Structure formats: structure tokens, C-alpha cells
Amino acid sequence: MGKKSRNPSARSKKLDRQERQRAARHGEMTTVGMAAVLPLDAFPVLHEGEIRILPADRIRARFEAELASDNEPPLDGDAEFRSMLVEDVQEGRFRLRRDGNWESDNDYFAAPST
């Protein structure tokens, strides 16, 4: 009797299934991240290797400084601030990590430039 060979279609099905699972996992994290942004006033953020608490007021100050540098009017209420923050989550600039802490491409702990 000859040696059995492995079914190549089973391997490709497995790889396809794993890829779909990875894609679904990323989508779930974004959804969880956006839902977590809305009610919070402070975020645990990984910054330079340590977890620091980032108040929403500090994020708002950075947004206000960016708007002022572009000669745009200041934020109009909490809803506009939250929508800008959700936009950062959607575009991946503010990410929820699997350990429940956040990480960001922006340095929110630096003093905002005016």
C-alpha cells in the first residue's frame, strides 16, 4: 500500500479560516474601542513603557491646540470632542490593547503647543 498524502485543500481551508478569524478579531477590537471611548473621562494609556492615566481634558486640549494652529474655531461641545476621539479610534491613531489599556500615535502627555 502506498503512503497517504495530505489533502492540500484541507490546509488551504484551514488558512482561510484562520485569516477570517484574524480579520473578525480586529473588527471586534475596533467596535469595543469605539464603545469604550464614549462614556470615559480618563483612559489608562501605555506611555513610554508604563501605564499612565490620560484625562479626557488633556486630549481635548490637544485637539483645541491643533484646531487653533489651523485657524479653526474651538470645539463646539462634548459631542464634537467625542466624535473627533472616535475618529482617532476608527483610523487607528488611538487603539485599545488586548490588556484593556490604550496606546496612541500621538503624545498626549506633552504640553499642547499654542
From TrEMBL:
Basic and acidic residues bias spans: 13-28
Protein name: Uncharacterized protein
Species the sequence originates in: Streptomyces atratus
Basic residues: compositionally biased ranges: 1-12
Start and end residues of each stretch annotated as Disordered: 1-29
Superkingdom classification of source: Bacteria
